[in-house]
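so my prof wants the structure for this chain in the tokens format not the other one, which i didnt know existed until like an hour ago. anyway here's the sequence
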Amino acid sequence: MMRIKKARQILKSLADDTRLRIINLLGKQELNVTELCEIVGVNQSNLSKHLARLRLTGVVTDRREGLNVYYHLRKPENRAHKELVNAITIGLSELEVFKKDLEKLNKSKKGKGIVKTVEVRNE
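here's what i got, hopefully its the right format
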């Protein structure tokens, strides 16, 4: 069961347009900082601060490969966490800015092909 403090921290971390856009993109595929910067249109320093906030609240996690750091959505710890992430990746998927970000992702090197909205499952 999610504690109220944890829920509040997650909700606070979602209260930013850039972080919502990051979550939307990472709901589709793993991306590194450079790729996210290109799609979202912010500088690396600014993006890194947003990613750090999302990582500290347990929304995203990372893996290192050489000099690159790749980010992806963290597997939800419980149903409440899962529903919060789904509210963004599915519930807000029709927002114009989210659609434009996904178009950019599809045009990017890693994003070739069709990107679908996928529900986060708590397996």
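also thought this was worth mentioning. Confidence is low (pLDDT under 50) at residues 111-119.
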